[in-house]
Amino acid sequence: MWISLLALTICLLALCLDYVKSGYLIVLNPFSWVVLLILFYFAIPSLFSEQISNYYNWGLFSADILYSRLLTLLVTVYFSFLLCLFSSKHIGAIILEKDSHSPVLIWGVWLVIVSYIFWLFKLKLSEGVFSNAFLYDADAAKDPYKLKNIAYLLIPVSIYLYFDKYRFWVFIPNILIVLLDILHGSRTTAFICLVPILICFIIRHKKLYLTQLLALFMIMLAIGVVRSDNVVQNVPWYISAIGEFRETYITLPLYITDVDYVGNGSFLTYIGSLLFGIVQPLRESISNTYILPGTFIARDVARGYGLGSNFLIESLYFGFYGLIASITLLTSFMFILYRQVYKVKNIDAVLLITLFIVFSRLIVREGIPVNIGLYCFILIFYISPIFLMRKVKL
Prior knowledge:
Order of helices and strands: HHHHHHHHHHHHHHHHHHHH
Structural class: mainly alpha
Keywords: Membrane, Transmembrane, Transmembrane helix
Shape: globular
Number of strands: 0
Oligomer: single chain
Transmembrane segments: 32-49, 70-92, 104-125, 145-163, 175-201, 208-226, 316-338, 347-364, 370-389
Distance between the termini: 62 Å
Strand content: under 5%
Protein name: Oligosaccharide repeat unit polymerase
Largest sheet: none
């Protein structure tokens, strides 16, 4: 357990040191977000590996738990070092230059989204959405109304419009989607909608609202407890509360020495993973051609719910060299983004880092190549059109 405590301490020290030096600018640094996510998705759940194995009948071996903790420690040291090297203080404050012309086309998109969300909210009320509030709804998780797509579109729309008017009401569609998602016992789409709100307020007021962020985090944990308690009974509250972190981490000790998994992926499968996010029309073809890491694990575990992978065990599917390649890919991606935010220093920089915050979570809990590819897809097809609309003056 001391290995996990050491990893936890290193994460906290790196984040606290960067915050003391940089203040609210820490939210603009991609390296700080990855360290924070490693803290929650690896360092914390690794502390409770034995309890998780016991309560959820994973049957983990002591050696696998040890190897997983050692790998977690190594990754923690590496990314904490990068955070110290690429400190948030070097980024500098964002320059908020108000556009002299109102972005009319973006307001038109916003009105269409608001109309659709109000219609959907009314529909859900008529279906009695409050009768099973906060309980996980598998049908809603399939996203038949494409709320996740709208949430991605709202990232540029809400950011540009907020910095145009500095009015909270531009986030009305974000808040409604958050409410709908939470009422269905989910948090993923809600997270996408909440990130631009939080980042806009932090950048505007140059203040990191730690108390408010902690309260929001506790609410998310409470939803996890409510949802998890309906899956496995008699589990300590703190194990239920870290449900998402627990489920993400547990695949590491479960497969870290599995000879049928580690090194089973080919170079072409890795390329397929990268293209899976970018080339959306070919996703089904790629899924049928290659067995991706998350698919392998989900089929092998077969517990009837969406247990997937994390970026470490996903990388080990391609062997040791796959792990090195993925860590290098992620580091390069973060460095490029860090340099862009450093150079741009305007609303577009806020947009880039907001999108990264959303995808950094997906990268850590699902895998690196797939979600870096998906980041590029969203940037091209969701962000760029709104960016171009902002340039149109009517």
